[in-house]
UniProtKB/TrEMBL annotation:
Biased composition range(s): Polar residues: 34-50
InterPro entries xrefs: Ac_CoA_lig, AMP-bd_C, AMP-bd_C_sf, AMP-binding_CS, AMP-dep_synth/lig_dom, ANL_N_sf
Source species of the chain: Synaphobranchus kaupii (Kaup's arrowtooth eel)
GO CC annotation: mitochondrial matrix
AMP-dependent synthetase/ligase domain: residues covered: 237-629
Protein name stated in the entry: Acetyl-coenzyme A synthetase
Annotated region described as Disordered, given as residue ranges: 31-51, 158-178
Record GO biological process: acetyl-CoA biosynthetic process from acetate; lipid metabolic process
Coiled-coil blocks: 82-109
Pfam family of the protein (one): AMP-binding
Length: 810
C-alpha cells in the first residue's frame, strides 16, 4: 500500500505537469489574448516580472469556466484521486496505476483543447462519447467538443508516468490551495493552472467566474459552490508531505531570547492530537468552540483542530472580562472552551482560567473546559475542567480530516457594532482561506523561505488572517508574538527582528506612535537588514508615524504598505501593493484596491460619486472571496449594517477620499464606532456598561483623537438629581463597570458630568456637538437648529471648561 502523503505529493506534481501546457490558453481565455498581460477585474493592468510569480504556487479552481457536463466527465476521471487527496484511505499500487492512466487521459484532453484553439481539426468519432467545455469570455460563450475516451499523449508534454515515480516536487508551492476540493458527488472540480497574477485574479477573485451570487441585496453569495475541502489539510498536510521539517511557527515568548520553534510536522501532530481530544469529549462537526488563550502554538493548534473536525472556533481576545467572554460564549452557544491556566504578557501574569471560571457559570451550553498549562502555577479546577496536555498525550498523531463544503462556517469572530451588542462575524471555508493566502503573498511580497512577522494577537482578525491562516496556507514561517512593544524595553520589536531574521514586519500604528517617542538608538542598535517589507494595520497611520517607521525602522529601503480592511472583509482590501515594480507608494495612504475589489464612493443620497479628488462613503460594489457571509444568528442585522445603507453595495462604515491620481485615503469611521489602538469598539457598548450604575440615567460616549492610541473614549455623564455620591466616587465606579463589563482598554480617558445631553426634537443625541466640545472646536458647532433646546450647548461647554480647569490643576 502506498503512503497517502507521498501519493498526494506525486499527484500534485502530475497536476502541475498536466496543466502547464494549457497555461497560455487559459491566460488568453481569461485575459486580453496575451499570456503576459491580463486585464484585472479592478480595471487595472499589470505586467508581472517572473520573480513575482511563484512557480506552481496555487491550484487554481476553474469550476466557473466549465459546463456541468464537462465537470462531470472530467470529474469521473479523477474519482480515485479524490480519495487520495482527502487522505481517507491508502491506494494500492494497482489502483495507482489505474489512476495514472486516467490522468494521462486528462493530459490528452488538455492537449486536444490546445490543438483545437490553435486551429487544428478535432476528430470526434460518432461512436465515442464527448462533452462540451464552455468558457465565458465577456458576452461570448466558447465551446469545444472533447473526446473523453482515448487520446494519444503529445510528445511536447513531459512524460506523466515518469513523474509519477518521482517522490519530489522540484519547486515547492507555498499554497496548494483547495487541491482537494470536490463537488457534492466527489468529483474534482479544480485544475492546477500556473497563471499570472492577473489571470488568477480573474479566475479566483472575480465573482463572475467562481461565485454564485444568490441575492446581493441580502449579501448571500457562495464562493466555489459545491466545492469541498479541509482547511487544516491545506495549512498543514500539504506542506508536511513536502517539507515536514520546515519551521511553521516561531513562538516569541514574553521573555526575550526564549523563542520556541515548531515545524510543520510537529504542528500537524499537535493539531491532530488536540482534534482527537475534542472529538473524544463530544465535540462534533458544526459545534462551536471558544478559544480564550494568549498567543501560543497550542492556541494555533486549537484553531486548526477545530477546522480539522469541522467545528467552528470563536477566538476571544484574552484581555476581555468574564462578562464580555460570557456574552460571546452565550451568543455562539459554545459546547467547549479552550484556555490556559494563566497568561503571561509584559512581565505580568494574567489570570485566564479565573476569568473563564466566572464566565462559564453564566453559560449552560458549555460542557467542558480544556485547560493548558502556560505557567507552572496551580489554579483551582472545577468539574468541567480537563487538563489539555494530559489528554492530548493519550491521542494518536493522525486525525482524518472532515471534508467541509466551501460555504460551511470556518470561524466566527466578534466585533463591536454601533448598536451595543457585539456581533459574531461569520467566515466560511474556501473563500476566506483563498483570500487570506493571496493577500498575504501579494500585499507583503512573501517569497518561499521568508520569516513573516505579524505581531497581532490571534484574538483579532489580523491574527487569524496574517498570523495563522494566510501564512500557513502559503507554507511560511510565521511569528507568534506573546509580549508587548516595550517589554523589557522599547527595543523589543527590533531585537526580535534581528534574532529571528524577520523579513516582513506587520504591526499597528498605535505601537509605532508609542515607540517613536523613544530615542532612535533603541532601533539603530539592532540589525534590521533582514527586513524587506513593512506594514501597518488596524487604523489609518499618521504621517509622522509613517515617516519614522519607513526611515528609521526601514532605513528608507523597505516598502511600507498601509493596509485597509476589516473583520468583515477577511483580508486586505486596499494597500499600495500589489503593483508594478517601481510603482510609487504615497506616505500614509492605502492607495490601491486588491485584485477583484471594486471600490465605490457614495454620496448622502446613495448615488455613486464619479471622478477624482472626491470624498464619500466607502463601499464595495461586487463580492470578493473573503467577504463575511453573515452575523451569527442574526442575518437581518448583517443586511441592515452592510447591505441596506446602499442597496447593491457593501458599506464599510468608513469614509474615504479618492485623490487626483485615483488613489484611496481612509478618512475615518462614519458611525458610532471608535478605534482604540487598532481595535474597533462601539460607543453603545461602553454606554450600556455605564448606564448600569444606579446613579446614572444616561450617558453619551464619543471618540476623540489620541497621540498614541489613535482614538480614546470620552464620556459625558448625566447623574440623577438626587444622587448621593461624590462625582469622583461615581467616576471611579464607572471605570470599574467598564473594566468588568468589557475590558480595561475600553475605559474612557475622560468623564464630564453634565445636567443633560444635546438632543434633537425626536430624542436623538447630537454626538457631533459633543465631539466639537471635546476637541475644543466650539467656535464652529455647525447647524444646531434641530436641537430641542439650544441652551444645552452652553451648559455642556461650561461643564467641559470646568473639567479642563480641574484637570490642569491636578
Amino acid at each position: 500500500m502506498s503512503n497517502p502523503h507521498t501519493f498526494q505529493t506525486k499527484l500534485a506534481s502530475i497536476m502541475d505537469i498536466l496543466t502547464k501546457a494549457a497555461v497560455a490558453e487559459f491566460n488568453k481565455v481569461v485575459g486580453d489574448g496575451s499570456p503576459q498581460s491580463t486585464e484585472l477585474s479592478s480595471g487595472q493592468t499589470e505586467n508581472e516580472s517572473p520573480n513575482k510569480v511563484l512557480e506552481g504556487e496555487f491550484l487554481t479552481l476553474v469550476m466557473g469556466l466549465l459546463t456541468k457536463e464537462a465537470r462531470e466527465r472530467i470529474g469521473k476521471l479523477m474519482e480515485e484521486s479524490s480519495a487520495a487527496l482527502h487522505l481517507e484511505k491508502s491506494q494500492s499500487e494497482k489502483e495507482n496505476e489505474a489512476l495514472k492512466r486516467k490522468l494521462q487521459l486528462m493530459e490528452s484532453q488538455l492537449s486536444t483543447v490546445r490543438g483545437h484553439r490553435e486551429g487544428r481539426a478535432l476528430e470526434t468519432p460518432a461512436n465515442r462519447p464527448s462533452c462540451s467545455v464552455g468558457v465565458q469570455v465577456g458576452d461570448e460563450y466558447r465551446g469545444v467538443e472533447i473526446d473523453v475516451e482515448e487520446f494519444s499523449v503529445k510528445e511536447s508534454l513531459p512524460n506523466v508516468s515518469q513523474h509519477c515515480e518521482e517522490d519530489h516536487d522540484p519547486q515547492p508551492r507555498p499554497a496548494q490551495l483547495n487541491s482537494d476540493i470536490t463537488d457534492k458527488n466527489g468529483y474534482i472540480l479544480s485544475a492546477a493552472v500556473q497563471l499570472s497574477a492577473n489571470a488568477r485574479a480573474r479566475l479566483l477573485i472575480d465573482h463572475q467566474y467562481c461565485a454564485e451570487v444568490c441575492d446581493p441585496q441580502l449579501g448571500r453569495i457562495s464562493w466555489f459552490p459545491g466545492g469541498q475541502l479541509n482547511v487544516s489539510v491545506n495549512c498543514l498536510d500539504v506542506h508536511v508531505a513536502k517539507h515536514p521539517d520546515r519551521v511553521a511557527l516561531v513562538w516569541e515568548r514574553d521573555e526575550p531570547g526564549t523563542e520556541v520553534k515548531v515545524t510543520y510536522r510537529e504542528l500537524q501532530e499537535s493539531t491532530c492530537r488536540l482534534a482527537n481530544t475534542l472529538k473524544r469529549h463530544g465535540v462534533q462537526r458544526g459545534d462551536r468552540v471558544a478559544i480564550y488563550m494568549s498567543v501560543s502554538p497550542l492556541a494555533v493548534a486549537a484553531m486548526l483542530a477545530c477546522a480539522r473536525i469541522g467545528a467552528v472556533h470563536t477566538v476571544v481576545f484574552a484581555g476581555f472580562s468574564a462578562e464580555a467572554l460570557a456574552g460571546r460564549i452565550q451568543d455562539a452557544q459554545c459546547k467547549a472552551v479552550v484556555t490556559c491556566n494563566q497568561g503571561v504578557r509584559g512581565g505580568r501574569v494574567i489570570e485566564l482560567k479565573a476569568t473563564v471560571d466566572a464566565a462559564v457559570k453564566m453559560c449552560p451550553s458549555v460542557q467542558c473546559v480544556f485547560v493548558a498549562q502556560r505557567t507552572s502555577n496551580r489554579v483551582p479546577m472545577t468539574r468541567l475542567d480537563i487538563l489539555l496536555e494530559e489528554e492530548m498525550a493519550k491521542e494518536r498523531v493522525e486525525c482524518p480530516p472532515e471534508m467541509m463544503d466551501s460555504e460551511d462556517m470556518l470561524f466566527m469572530l466578534y466585533t463591536s457594532g454601533s448598536t451595543g451588542k457585539p456581533k459574531g462575524i461569520v467566515h466560511t471555508q474556501a473563500g476566506y482561506l483563498l483570500y487570506a493566502a493571496l493577500t498575504h503573498q501579494y500585499v507583503f511580497d512573501y517569497q518561499p523561505g521568508d520569516v513573516f512577522g505579524c505581531v497581532a494577537d490571534i484574538g483579532w482578525v489580523t491574527g487569524h488572517s496574517y498570523v495563522v491562516y494566510g501564512p500557513l496556507c502559503n507554507g511560511a514561517t510565521t511569528v507568534l508574538f506573546e509580549s508587548t512593544p516595550v517589554y523589557p524595553n522599547p527595543g523589543r520589536y527590533w531585537e526580535t527582528v534581528e534574532r529571528l531574521g524577520i523579513n516582513q514586519f506587520y504591526g499597528a500604528p498605535t505601537a509605532i506612535r508609542l515607540l517613536l517617542k523613544y530615542d532612535e538608538s533603541w532601533v539603530k542598535k539592532y540589525d534590521r537588514s533582514s527586513l524587506k517589507t513593512l506594514g501597518s494595520v488596524g487604523e489609518p497611520i499618521n504621517h509622522e508615524a509613517w515617516e519614522w517607521f519607513y526611515n528609521v525602522v526601514g532605513d528608507g529601503r523597505c516598502p511600507l504598505v498601509d493596509t485597509w480592511w476589516q473583520t468583515e472583509t477577511g483580508g486586505v482590501c486596499i494597500a499600495p501593493r500589489p503593483a508594478e515594480d517601481g510603482a510609487e507608494i504615497i506616505p500614509a495612504m492605502a492607495m490601491r484596491p486588491f485584485f477583484g475589489v471594486q471600490l465605490a464612493l457614495m454620496d448622502e443620497k446613495g448615488a455613486v460619486i464619479t471622478g477624482n479628488d472626491v470624498s464619500g462613503a466607502l463601499c464595495i460594489s461586487q463580492p470578493w472571496p473573503g467577504m463575511a457571509r453573515t452575523i451569527y444568528g442574526d442575518h437581518q442585522r448583517f443586511v441592515d449594517a452592510y447591505m441596506k445603507p446602499y442597496p447593491g453595495y457593501y458599506f464599510s462604515g468608513d469614509g474615504a477620499y479618492r485623490s487626483n491620481e485615483g488613489y484611496y485615503q481612509i478618512t475615518g469611521r462614519m458611525d458610532d464606532v471608535i478605534n482604540i489602538s487598532g481595535h474597533r469598539l462601539g460607543t453603545a457598548e461602553i454606554e450600556d456598561a455605564l448606564d448600569e450604575h444606579p446613579e446614572v440615567p444616561e450617558t453619551a460616549v464619543i471618540g476623540i483623537p489620541h497621540d498614541i492610541k489613535g482614538e480614546v473614549p470620552f464620556a459625558f455623564v448625566v447623574l440623577k438629581e438626587d444622587h448621593s455620591l461624590e462625582h469622583s466616587v461615581v467616576i471611579e465606579e464607572l471605570r470599574g463597570l467598564v473594566a468588568t463589563k468589557i475590558a480595561k482598554y475600553a475605559i474612557p480617558d475622560h468623564f464630564v458630568i453634565v445636567k443633560r445631553l444635546p438632543k434633537t426634537r425626536s430624542g436623538k443625541i447630537m454626538r457631533r456637538i459633543l465631539r466639537k466640545v471635546a476637541t475644543d472646536q466650539t467656535g464652529d458647532l455647525g447647524d444646531v437648529s434641530t436641537l430641542d433646546d439650544p441652551s444645552v450647548v452652553t451648559e455642556i461647554v461650561q461643564a467641559y471648561t470646568r473639567f479642563m480647569s480641574q484637570s490642569a490643576s491636578k
